[in-house]
Amino acid sequence: MTARYRHADVIVVGGGPAGSVVAWDLARRGVDVLLLERTQFPRDKVCGDYVEPRGLRILELVGCLERLEQGGLLAITDSATFVDGQCRYQGPIPFYGHSAELAPHGYIIPRVELDDALLGAAAQAGARVHQKASVIGVHSGPDGVEVTARCAGSDVRYRAPLVVGADGANSVVGSGVGLLADDERHTAVAQRAYMSGADGTIGEAVFWFDEQLFPGYGWMFPMADGRVNVGVGILSETRRRLRVHIPSLFRAFIERARRFHPRSASLELCTPAIGGVVKTYGGASRNYFHGGVLIGDAGSFADPMTGEGITPAFESALLAAPVLMRALEAGHFHGPQLSEFEASFRRYFDPAMDFLDLCAATLRNHYMARPWLRALARGCELAQTDAEFALIGGSYFGGLDIRPRGILGQIWVRIAQDLVLVWPRSTTQLLDPKLQPTGATIGDLVEWQEAWSRSALRDPLWHARWTMDVQRKWVRVLASMTRATTDPRAAGLPDV
Q1: H/E/C letters for each residue in 254-309?
Q2: Secondary structure (DSSP) of 322-388
Q3: pTM higher than 0.70 for the full model?
Q4: What is the residue-averaged pLDDT of the chain?
Q5: What is the sign of the dihedral through the CA atoms of 303, 308, 314 and 320?
Q6: 410 phi/psi in degrees, rounded to 5
Q7: What H or E segment, with its residue span, contains residue 50?
């Protein structure tokens, strides 16, 4: 390797969605970008593979969408939600198709295809891509950033004024600069496999919730070739506290899906199940340092409720690129110059992500699983008959325009209506035990109280910490609501 390949304006570590997009954006602006990827593409990656409409908009910008669509993609327009094995909602995804600027569907794009296309786009834009270059050390000093990578059995050193850590949840860059996030309250563990035997014409994403998966969920995402991306994800804190064995959890989910989901009985595994880690928004301390920034999973940008990380990875990359450009133009690579990235992504993400982080934190308490699952079932049933409630109240899970005021307003109105009818409904059920209640009863209120008491009595220290954490997040959300009334992610990034 000649010396000219060891120097660049910006070194990007990691060739996934975040790394490839930031390399593409910088290269098209004339920056000398060197991207180091530890594997050889194409390669697989643990992921749900779901690219929602905002992500498709960015894929079109990068120039990858048409190529990927030519391979045959199934438009995901519908969803089904199962709670305790029973389908509680089935129909169109409520918040798709309401913006003329966004596609009315999502796609399931296997990462083996998506990441290869994005890396190709970065190279075509002018980024120098070195594959099978495994970064083993990062040092940031007054003379710039030095990156050491293992290439074909030898150590190679690279230098640049700036480095971008886009190397995933276990980021070597983040670890090297002392910013690797390790908060298990903001970390999810997942296992995923592909199954075959599905109808490749039904674009329905299936979400599965039950006590075994709480706080987390299972998913089944179909593709045009008759395969289905099937997986489970659960909070790391819960996995440790309850000693959950993820492979067993995955197998049990497959068995339950085959039993209760009408189109799953004939599905067969066609790939081994593989596991991975997701780090969600709110878990990182800061994402800039002297000489660089962290983006994508390395910067904990995944959605706290769904764990979806592809679109936030794109967005974090596109927010980072102009900050890095300005640093290069100014010749200043210290922390204060790069702190602009932190300010920029917080303006963009906080109005929605802070609220989603609050929702996720509230659901962390496994003792509250039963009442929360009952509430979810009730919410799904309301969404089935009330389009406005489905659009606004249900947007906390995968919505494209997160407005906390509207969501809370919808939910609180429904809670108030339910509470008013608790006594009449309970009396009716007492007179006719065979009658199935259609809302909250005295028994439901008692169940909430019992779950809360169980949590406080069985694990008082954890309960106190959880309560304080939720309260802190409420304060943050309320402060955010006073500053922003819209979701900037709905409009997209204005500078790209």
Answers
A1: HHHHHHHCCCCCCCEECCCCEEEEEEECCCCCCCEECCEEECHHHHCCECCCCCCC
A2: HHHHHHHHHT--SHHHHHHHHHHHHHHHHHHHHHHHHHHHHTT-GGGHHHHHHHHHHHHHHHHH-HH
A3: yes
A4: 91
A5: positive
A6: -60, -45
A7: strand 50-51
Q: How confident is the model at residue 496 (pLDDT cuts 50, 70, 90)?
A: low
Of the candidates 340, 373, 7, 372, the one whose C-alpha atom is nearest the C-alpha of residue 162 is: 7
Residue 306 and residue 104: Cα distance in Å, rounded?
19
Per-residue pLDDT tens for 202-252? Answer: 999 999 999 999 999 999 999 999 999 999 999 999 999 999 999 999 999
The whole-angstrom separation of Cα 390 and Cα 379 is 8
**Residue 443, pLDDT score:** 66
Encode pLDDT of 415-454 as tens digits: 666 655 444 544 554 555 554 555 556 667 788 899 999 9
Instruction: Tell me the C-alpha distance between 304 and 281, whole Å.
Output: 6
Region 181-197: mean pLDDT is 95
CB atoms within 10 A of CB 400: 19
DSSP 3-state percent helix, strand, coil across the chain (nearest 5): 45, 20, 30
The residue behind tokens 């083996």 is 112
Instruction: Tell me which residue of 299, 234, 283 sits closest to 17, measured CA to CA.
Output: 299
- Is the separation of the CB atoms in 190 and 46 below 8 Å? yes
Q: Do 290 and 323 contact (CB within 8 A), yes or no?
A: no
Domains located in the chain, CATH noted: 3-73+109-181+284-333 (3.50.50.60), 184-279 (3.30.9.10), 366-488 (no CATH)
Neighbours of 223 (CB within 10 A): 22
State how far the alpha carbon of 136 is from the alpha carbons of 147, 155, 163, 166, 321, in Å: 8, 9, 14, 14, 24
Q: Taking a C-beta distance cutoff of 8 angstroms, is the pair 256, 210 a contact?
A: yes
Q: At CA 389, angle to CA 386 and CA 391, rounded to 5?
A: 105
* Order of strands, sheet of 33-37, starting from the edge strand that comes earlier in the sequence: 128-131, 33-37, 10-13, 162-165, 292-294, 288-289
147 in Cβ contact with 138 (< 8 Å): yes
Model confidence at 311, pLDDT cuts 50, 70, 90, reads very high
Give pLDDT tens digits for 380-424.
999 999 999 999 988 999 999 999 988 888 877 776 666 554 445
What pLDDT is attached to residue 480?
85
Output the six-digit token pair for 458.
Answer: 């069985």
Tokens of 325: 């450009």
Q: What is the pLDDT of residues 200-212, one digit of tens each?
A: 999 999 999 999 9
